[in-house]
Amino acid sequence: MNHHLWTLIAQTIHRSSSDRILGGFHQLSRLCGQTGQTGQTIFQGIYNTMTDKMVKKADLTQLLSRLLEDYRVFAPVRRGDITNFQQISTADEPYFSCTNTILSPKSLMLPQSECMFDFTLEKGSDMAGIMREIDKDYSPRVIFGIRPCDAKSFQLLDLNFDTSSYRDPWWVRRRHHTTLVGLGCNVPCSTCFCTSVGGSPFAEDGLDLLLTDVGDEFALQSITEKGEQLLRKTGIETESSAATAKAVLACKESALGLMGSSVPTNNLEKHDVTALFNADFWDKVQFACINCGICTYVCPTCWCFDIQDEVRKNNGVRLRNWDSCMSPLFTLHGSGHNPRNEKLQRVRQRFMHKLKYFVDKYERGVACVGCGRCVEQCPVNIDIREVFRLMNQFKS
Amino acid sequence: MQSYRTKIFEIALRLLVEKQVDGVLGFRRGSIPMMSQPILISSPDEADQLHWDSFCSSNLATYLPRRKGRVAVFAKGCDSRNIVLQILENQIKREQLYIIGVPCQGMVDRRKVLAALDGREPAGVSEGNGMIRLSGGNFKEDLSRDEYLQENCAICTHRNPVIYDELVAETTNEQREVDRYVDIHALEAMSDDDRWQHFEKILTPCIRCYACRNACPMCYCPTCFVDESTPQWLGKSIDPTDTRTFHFLRAFHLAGRCTDCGNCERACPMGIKVRQLTKKLEKDIKQLYAYEAGLSLDEPPPLDTYRPDDPQEFIR
Q1: For residue A367, what are the contacts with CB-CB under 8 A and spacing of at least 6?
Q2: Those residues with Cβ within 8 angstroms of residue B21's Cβ, 6 or more apart along the chain or in another chain
Q3: B226 and B253 housed in the same domain
Q4: Which parts of A261-342 fold into alpha helices (H)?
């Protein structure tokens, strides 16, 4: 794409106050890379087709019922006091009143435990010793009601699972066949700090469609072609009214004012990594930690996994399971040596990875989307916001 | 609570100034409402960080095994019982400890309060006259403290520390009329199939984060059986068989050693009733051996000992 075209696009975006264009812009750059089409045609295509719709809250179940005909639908579901993302089979199951689910929807892309291959060791079998990929359901699905921070986490995980050197086939396929319908956060939690780490309560990064709760109705704003497609399938025709558009803007503004907390990040990349590694404050940070895996398991951006074979008699499966750097076993060598044998080393690793190594390696900010789950769930109140402050203000 | 806080500050300051201990293990106010953080302070300047309220529920004994040096520790009834057990099991020496007993009125269950607020987030929390006063953006709510206690605290019969060098306040009245085993009676009345279903149901949400184990002051094994890799006893997935094995084995390992401090349930992010397993075994041990864990330095847990007259009807 030539320089002139970029300038044109930039000007168009500048003139428009709509965030939607920015969403289209991201997609544009991606499409250009893939198809070699000129940016202008694609850009105009996106611009012309994206329309905002609205749906009365009372009609939401109808919308979900329609989606259930074409998609596998995952949404927050409440069981007792616990709300988490689950596949729904009827439209009345979802529970949208919760702000953040206990677990992030990470497991829908990177399951806690996943069989990758099966194998047989049967002597004489043609398949003996050969890993056979296990079939999985890759029919279209939608994650309905995902929060913008969680959608952003998928983009951060793309940096690990979908790169020019490595393309994790399961991650990539799941990403491809999933449409993300976001629900903006009118009232962020007191532990939320997305705006400090490159997000916002109504950010569109990673989403295909964004819902805004404007009282009696939801405004639906499609962000990508995938989102547009989904919107068409719902059959919703009601265009967003001027009043709704105004209410959406009001929600966005008011949410920013209600942000629970903030963290400083400006110095993180400047720090010398070894000096930060050797900082005195880690001793205080780590004291209360009981080295459980809650923070890593509830975290949308913790992507570490472990591979295990489980064999019964002559048949087995190769599994991939979430792992946690909080566990001593995470780094235990076959020799018996453990380079992170002490709790301090493990606690430091988690924060250094998120707030320093990742920052330096990818130059895309921190590996944290500010969802506040670890703050909320840590049984001994180890608060990542405090660690942000300590690391950011560190003086060697 | 204010009187507790003043006393706690005075005691810690005195011990550190007089260099009677290397550090004081207590709580500081949490960074979010209804939360506290265990801290170890080693200088008199830090004494003002020490805090006490109805949310200092973590069991501080969890931080004691294999600790070096001499440390002062604030101990509620349950913490003190776990300290007794740790001394009996050679995890720490009595002379390493200066135990500051804190007579306890029961700790408040943060999650229960949050559930009652149904999505409204409290910004301010205060206590007084048996009430928890909560306020947030556009609400004020007073809740009766007794109705929001942790389940283990509501049925606790040892609120006073059983071992101490000093108390922060007069001992409190013990609850004598509570039935500790209402849920266990129900469990015992179930048919085998129903009980199996019940266990399966309560354990299904488990994500194997091991917070229950790591929060437990009695789970101090250098390497837990689930983390053994040569050989590996247990699968690492969330296969129900592995999950059940972990929970059942852990519960059995705690038979006669669990003080029902509730640290496991409090830590669990998925709301699993872990205590139903440990409490059934607590009841069995009480019936079989007339033993309650951690009440005296002269009585080791029955399964740690052998006596010729131990009951043995179960051997067939």
Answers
A1: A156, A301, A353, A354, A355, A358, A359
A2: B15, B70, B71, B72, B98
A3: yes
A4: 273-277, 282-287, 294-298
Taking CB atoms and an 8 Å limit, are A290 and B211 in contact across chains?
yes
Whether A381 sits inside 8 A of B37 (CB atoms) is: yes
Do B54 and B75 sit in the same domain of this protein?
yes
Number of domains in chain B: 2
Task: Report CB contact under 8 Å: A293, B210.
Answer: yes
- Any residues with CB less than 8 A from the CB of A21 and at least 6 apart, and which? A12, A13, A47
Do B126 and B240 belong to one domain?
Answer: no
B240-253 and B192-203 are packed helices; what angle lies between their axes, rounded to 10 degrees?
100
Task: Tell whether A287 lies on the interface with B, counting CB pairs under 8 A.
Answer: yes
pTM of the model: 0.90
Distance from CA of B257 to the nearest CA of A (A): 20
Chain B residues with CB-CB distance to A385 below 8 A: 31
Q: How many other CB atoms sit within 10 Å of the CB of residue A11?
A: 10
- Asked whether the beta carbons of A93 and B261 are under 8 A apart, the reply is no
Range of the domain at B140: 110-148
Residues of A with Cβ-Cβ distance to B119 under 8 angstroms: 97-99
ipTM of the complex as predicted: 0.95
Which among A102, A290, A381 has the least Cβ separation from residue B269? A102
From first to last of its 316 residues, what are the pLDDT tens digits of chain B? Answer: 678 999 999 999 999 999 999 999 999 999 999 999 999 999 999 999 999 999 999 999 999 999 999 999 999 999 999 999 999 999 999 999 999 999 999 999 999 999 999 889 999 999 999 999 999 988 999 999 999 999 999 999 999 999 999 999 999 999 999 999 999 999 999 999 999 999 999 999 999 999 999 999 999 999 999 999 888 999 999 999 999 999 999 999 999 999 999 999 999 999 999 999 999 999 999 998 999 999 999 999 999 888 888 778 877 7
The answer to whether the Cβ–Cβ distance between B271 and A287 falls below 8 Å is no
Query: Is B110 an interface residue toward A (CB < 8 Å)?
Result: no
